[in-house]
Amino acid sequence: MFRKSLLAFAISLGVSTALPLAASAQDVAGDVPSFVQNGSLTVCTNPTLPPMTFVKGSDASKPEGMDIDVAQALAQRWHAKLSIIPMDFTGLFPSLGAQRCGMVLSGIIQLPAREKNFDAIAYQDTALTVVARANTPPITSMADLSGKTIAVQSGTSYATRINRENEALTAAGKLPIIIQQYPTEDQVVQQVLIGRVFAFVSQDVELYFRQKQLHGKVRIILKPDYPDYRHFAVYFRKNAQDRIMVQTAIAALEQDGTLQASRQKWSISAQSEQALTQDESASSFNWSAFFSALTSLAFFKGACITLAVALLSHAIAIVISIPMAITLNGRGNSVLKAVLKTYVSVFRGAPTLLQLLFIWNALPQFFPIFREQWFTPFLATLVALAINESAYQVEINRSALSAVDAGQELAADALGMSRKQVYRHVIFPQALRIALPPTINDFISLLKTTSLASVISLQELLAITQVQVARTFEFTEYYAAALVYYLAMVFFFLFLQKRVERRFSWADRKKASANAS
User: Fold this and answer.
1) What confidence tens digit (pLDDT) does each residue in 161-173 have?
2) What is the largest CA-CA distance in the chain?
3) Measuring CA to CA, which residue among 457, 453, 187, 459 is closest to residue 298?
């Protein structure tokens, strides 16, 4: 409570000294920050960090938590409509820099390194903790972790901070701390629960909230006193006037009790750490959670989005690849052929995830039109996967066209067929039989690749699964439910592939029998 009072006093003091500046700023720019565009406040968040921001129910598009309460209070104060954009943690600051959102509120520590590029205003006290399994004895310093493996969430500042400890350990002739990074906080916790790592690094408020979910299986073994890890902050693009307005708003929310009410609502207080070690029985597999996930509307919608993205992007890829394959299969060399070969090489060589992140986060830097609301995660995923898949489909189609006997084309030319007729009646039907099996195989691979879209907040099947796991910590049950959905889709297309191959095989045998007779 003393630290919260100190934080409120510091904010109030800063606001009181800035009131004249705030008044003049409002006279110039109005009574709302510049990032409130067209009466709308857009906030980016990663909804896997309870109690700050997480999905409490089944609708992944509606996160809850203290951060969401703060965002709603700020939007109400500025008479703006609130728009929440859930996304992967690593995409938060790139999206803020690309002006896809006006603020980032996601339980993020206020650090000087981040304030070099963005403004930050603190709103909640916190402390860094080292957490291990319940039977692990406490340690006295970070040096006691020498040679041990620690899990952290990728994109956070924890790895950088531990590396600073490693420099001191190395200088003292000791083994460094081994760092393993995972994309989400729930995966970090899971590594300790299954015994893969010794401990993980997190924030105290999250551990207090997760007591019941973790069934007393973990405990805090160290709270290192890091001055840089004492406050959660709201981040926004650098602007002196905006900083004053946000600082004034946060101070007002502290003074009128809004922030304190949210802390009580989400149990953000210095609760007894012994509660983390209370052993609660938990079944090895929660069949109720598994069947609930399997039959939930959220999982069904996620599977539909996964299937829609795969079908549409593959259809677009086929349309793009056919004229490219015909050109590459033609005789001679040309500048166009060289360009197409470069296209195929680049998009086959670059990782699919990198292409997806480039289209989502880098394109808005060069072309501001891609910052607009119309460029949704669904559309970005569709573009990225279609372009990537077309490079592979070109090679499939080109190989199929090359496999058609050249004598077939010569015979068609001798019959006086036009080039259009040659391709339509002679080459394409034969090439289709050759291209279809690898095309279906490629589609099945694409269906699974759609899971990468979870990093840009597309609410496909894997993203829904991760959100629910972060909410409940029922790892096995929700992963098993997602596996059932993926296998059902894949097995359907494998069955379809067998039927198509059998159909073509039957047609070939029939023609062969007719020719023999």
Assistant:
1) 999 999 999 999 9
2) 100
3) 459
